[in-house]
Amino acid sequence: MTLPSFPIATTSIGTDQPPFVIAEMSGNHNQSLDRAIAIVDAAADAGAHAVKLQTYTADTMTLDVDRDEFKILDPESLWFGRRLHELYREAATPWDWHDAIFAHAKSRGIIAFSSPFDETAVDFLETLDAPAYKIASFELTDLPLIAKTAATGKPLVMSTGMATLAEIDQAIECAREHGCGDLVLLKCTSNYPATPESTNLRTIEHLRDSFGVQVGLSDHTGGIGAAVAAVAMGATVIEKHFTLRRADGGVDSAFSLEPNELKSLVVETERAWQALGEIRYGSAGPQQKSLIFRRSIFVTRDVEKGEVVGPDCLRIVRPGHGLTPKNWSRVCGRTTNRKLTRGEPTNWDMFV
């Protein structure tokens, strides 16, 4: 299925363009504006197309309540034992940083946008002329939030972690009803980190074919393998969490890429996109030059005029200057009409 491309700011998203790579800052700024600016610089230097923030406060995300319902009690979670309010307070990007981050990103030629987590965040981001909005997986069922962001008329990127087909359909319908024209769905596995086995990249093609929209991957696995494979499955957008150094810690550092890894992601996903090409057989293009290295029939000893040729004086070898191997049975038993020399490629003119 071929879908029309569309722009986010000055960069187009579509199968006719290299994958749009988003560096997700999330809470990796570790409450330092200088570090946030450095992350923007590192993302730009690595070749990412966009850097994405998250716009919320702890109070817009949850309640400051000391009850089990507001704690992470999964012992396998990176954040086991943490209170939600405390965790969001630590990870939140202060709203008074956004203008500086957006401006610096613009100066570095990289797009900055954000995930709003409530309607006040959308209003705030509109004052910064955000070029697009991201709906996080956990907010995909928040139809009032989707309606609010869709009404801006900006492109929407929506993650689909945990969502059923029915929930995705409802989210898309809501977005369309409220003015969203350009939409990307991101296949996402909402584990932190996620395993390759839980990523299920084949869903990318199904999402695209089911809903007729651009589709990408929000990837929480380690490394870049899943992202490269996603491009082969048709992903036009790749989102990865990004930090300066995992060793510096932070709420998202364990499943975030470092600058050299992000650079590899940009390079290798573009190579994967270039390699997709089109359905093609034969030797058109650069392969044309390699035809000469196919096998063909050559003379292996001097042969007198009028002699009958056969396996004692012919062989199928490289290069491809002589008659093709499929003619072997037609050549053997022929009588020469001139003297042949060792190493001469065969042709029909040398036989009676």
TrEMBL record:
<dbReference type="GO" id="GO:0016051">
    <property type="term" value="P:carbohydrate biosynthetic process"/>
</dbReference>
<dbReference type="InterPro" id="IPR013132">
    <property type="entry name" value="PseI/NeuA/B-like_N"/>
</dbReference>
<protein>
    <submittedName>
        <fullName>Pseudaminic acid synthase</fullName>
        <ecNumber>2.5.1.97</ecNumber>
    </submittedName>
</protein>
<dbReference type="InterPro" id="IPR020030">
    <property type="entry name" value="Pseudaminic_synth_PseI"/>
</dbReference>
<dbReference type="InterPro" id="IPR013785">
    <property type="entry name" value="Aldolase_TIM"/>
</dbReference>
<dbReference type="InterPro" id="IPR051690">
    <property type="entry name" value="PseI-like"/>
</dbReference>
<dbReference type="Pfam" id="PF08666">
    <property type="entry name" value="SAF"/>
</dbReference>
<dbReference type="GO" id="GO:0047444">
    <property type="term" value="F:N-acylneuraminate-9-phosphate synthase activity"/>
</dbReference>
<dbReference type="InterPro" id="IPR057736">
    <property type="entry name" value="SAF_PseI/NeuA/NeuB"/>
</dbReference>
<dbReference type="Pfam" id="PF03102">
    <property type="entry name" value="NeuB"/>
</dbReference>
<dbReference type="InterPro" id="IPR036732">
    <property type="entry name" value="AFP_Neu5c_C_sf"/>
</dbReference>
<dbReference type="InterPro" id="IPR013974">
    <property type="entry name" value="SAF"/>
</dbReference>
<keyword id="KW-0808">Transferase</keyword>
<feature type="domain" description="AFP-like">
    <location>
        <begin position="296"/>
        <end position="352"/>
    </location>
</feature>
<dbReference type="InterPro" id="IPR006190">
    <property type="entry name" value="SAF_AFP_Neu5Ac"/>
</dbReference>
